[in-house]
Amino acid sequence: MISGGTPAVANPKKRAIGLTPSAFARDVLTKVGPATRGLPTPLARFAATRPFYEQAVAAGFLRRLIPAPLGGEGTGGLDMAVLAEEFHAVDANVSLTLLGTMLGLFPVLLAGNPEQQARFAAPFVTGQGAPLASFCFSEPGGSANFAAPRPAEGVRTVARRANGDDASDWIITGAKKWASSATGWDGRGADLMTVVCRTDPNAPPERAISVIAVTGPAPGVIAVWPHHVGFVVGSMGPGRIRVVSGNHNHLVQESTYSTHSVMAFRYPVGGGGRSMVRVANAAVRPWPF
Questions:
Q1: Which of 75, 93, 207, 227 has CA atoms 20 to 30 A from the CA of 49?
Q2: What is the pLDDT of residues 241-271, one digit of tens each?
Q3: Are 141 and 153 in contact, with CB atoms under 8 Å apart?
Q4: Domain presence at residue 171
Q5: β-bridge partners, 215
Q6: Does residue 6 fall inside a structural domain?
Q7: Is the pTM for the entire model greater than 0.90?
Q8: Distance (Å, rounded) from C-alpha 166 to C-alpha 163?
Q9: Same domain? 252 vs 137
Q10: Nearest-CA neighbor of 177 among 196, 203, 201?
Q11: Which secondary-structure segment (H or E) carries 112?
Q12: Strand, coil or helix: what is 191?
């Protein structure tokens, strides 16, 4: 961001890429507030944002967040951060849904094998509909200590084999919070949930940390729609899950998870933070300091 609140752009060769999100935010996302304001429940407010999200998908912005290895048009972290800043500066709700979907796809990008990448990313690169992905990491009891040694509990959500053998499906049981769009549009789960869990409940917390992909709608997702301060439209839990996922959906295991989690969060959070600074600068500029 340029001092004084000027919208950010990428390098000169990509200047148009930086301006297009700004125009979309101005023409479309400014209408989200009036469309959702006054609706009585979080579910109603979230559902009312679907047409705006569909416009963002149709305009190619989800494809531009998804890197080329997954079939998208993403060119790198800089353009992702620019898009995050431009959208979030105008509307925190639809932008969170869009960026949260990319966050949900990050474990597929970083750790999925070619077959998993092609299979899980396919619905998100068509430029159609309103597909949702969710990174299900945080838990009601706190997750900053996911790798802490005992007596800390670490990740509490666990996955076990349905039949006790390596060929059977996973049964995942636990609770998650702040998992953007995990509810899906109707409370039955997102199109893809990448769930952080422990595959060996007897192992130390820093070991046996896995990410397992769950495709929706997923019976066993019990959603709670709380009122949020700031993100008054989002669907971020808490909620409980008891879902079944195929044996071939195991993405990340053991202690590699800590590296992948840091990489997944940095660009959406960085872009959103920059937008808040920009909006704050614009708000205080008229005051005579």
A1: 75
A2: 565 666 667 765 544 444 455 455 555 555 5
A3: yes
A4: yes
A5: 192
A6: no
A7: no
A8: 8
A9: yes
A10: 196
A11: none
A12: coil
